[in-house]
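Extended Data, panel c. Modelled sequence:
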Amino acid sequence: MKLNQGVEWALHCCVNMAWAPAGEPISSGRLAELYKLPPAYLNKQLQCLVRAGVLQSVSGPRGGFQLARRPDRISVLDVVLAIEGRDLAFRCDGILAHCPGDDDDEDYFRSCIISQSMRQAELAWRTELARQTVAGMAQSLERRFPEARASSLAQLLGNNDAGSLSAPSEGRNGR
């Protein structure tokens, strides 16, 4: 399975938005600059997240994007599905129905061992992604790279003193 590069971009952007103070939207242009990404293509990915209810768009001169829900309520699967769509990775075409001795009454999608194995693998993958949240990723990243939050926010919000920014409150975007 190969995921669109927009999944990586979207997850990193969501982590940065989890770090941002409540009510501080982040512009797609600054996110694109931070990661050296094409602004128009990144904006397209962020719009997918808005349509999926992961982000909300804030208009105006200090507008941008912010999380639509608390980061502990946004799963990695939410982000993946927003970018990739909800279609299953494996599509059974039921080719067993074309083999000698096929049975017109057989539901090969359900009885085919290959189809069953692929569906079980996808279910396990989706279950694992659903367990992980943007908040958990942000916390793990900050533990591993303590300076990441402050340096990213300094560039994204234009603050010279982002190191003094406190961690987002539990009630952030409490929708």
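Residues 97 and 142 are 52 Å apart (CA to CA). This feature is highlighted in the accompanying rendering.
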